[in-house]
Write a structure and sequence with these properties.
Blueprint: E1 6-12, E2 18-26, E3 35-43, E4 47-54, E5 63-70, E6 76-84, E7 89-95, E8 108-115, E9 126-133, E10 137-144, E11 151-159
Antiparallel strand pairs: 1-4, 2-5, 3-4, 3-8, 6-11, 7-10, 8-11, 9-10
Length: about 160
């Protein structure tokens, strides 16, 4: 990932598989690269895209996307989008709907999130301060690092 730039890493499942879960790794090294992940979401049935911004203006960073693949049906997607004001944070919750039959909720397979436009050199980046999964919902606390620009953030949950 270039210094002061944005990048997208894509992990792909084979043609006969479906994306069942996912993850990422980003470089945060004291005095070196500081890559902030501002998005992780499905791209179609088989791919996962992870986007990030390198807050370091001198050092290249690293962003890796992981896809956990298998045989299964395409999940149901639920999301919530909020506008995060400058220099503040917002809590977003995406919840799976109730089951059609029986009690309880549809369990979530995994979740994701995506920020609106980011400009790391200007400090306009929204990233998760906390991201948690609770089986049927994904909870994200989004922090806007920009001093003067509102940025949208969306959280997703992929349900069985």
């Amino acid at each position: 990932m270039p210094a002061g730039g944005n990048a997208l890493a894509v992990a792909r499942c084979r043609g006969d598989e479906t994306l069942l879960s996912a993850g990422f790794r980003n470089s945060i090294e004291l005095g070196r690269a500081h890559v902030v992940v501002d998005g992780m979401q499905r791209i179609g049935v088989r791919n996962l895209g992870v986007s990030g911004a390198n807050l370091s203006t001198r050092v290249r960073g690293r962003l890796t996307a992981y896809a956990y693949c298998g045989h299964g049906k395409y999940p149901l997607v639920r999301s919530e989008t909020l506008t995060v004001p400058p220099s503040s944070k917002e809590r977003l919750v995406a919840r799976c709907p109730e089951k059609v039959r029986g009690f309880g909720y549809r369990p979530g397979l995994f979740g994701g999130f995506q920020a609106g436009s980011s400009d790391p050199l200007a400090g306009a980046v929204v990233s998760p301060a906390q991201y948690r999964s609770f089986g049927d919902r994904q909870v994200l606390t989004a922090v806007n690092r920009s001093a003067d620009q509102s940025i949208q953030m969306t959280v997703f949950v992929y349900c069985r």
